[in-house]
Amino acid sequence: MSTWLYRLTVPRQTFPGDITEAEGAIMERHGAYWSEWLASGAALVFGPVADPSGFWGLAVIQAEDEAAARRLAEGDPAIEARAGFGYDLFEMPGAVSAMTTNA
Length: 103
Prior knowledge:
The chain is an alpha+beta fold and 103 residues long. It has helices spanning 21-40, 66-74, 77-80, 98-101; strands spanning 2-9, 43-49, 56-63, 86-91.
């Protein structure tokens, strides 16, 4: 099992300050999607990041390999919507979490 950082990029730098109704609906589905993976244990944490240079989303996930991590990323309703959202995926070799230290 590997740990991955998923970074959701947003459609524009002014997001979410000028979120549209359609984008709001996408974000609701996005939150529900990651909540399910959180409940299953595949996601360790997720949420928005208030970066001074612009908001972005973060999920830390566990997956068997990069292909499995990409399937999680590409299944995100924000990505599936093809509404200007994108993602980056980075492996976190040697990541330590409460789950790994208590195992």
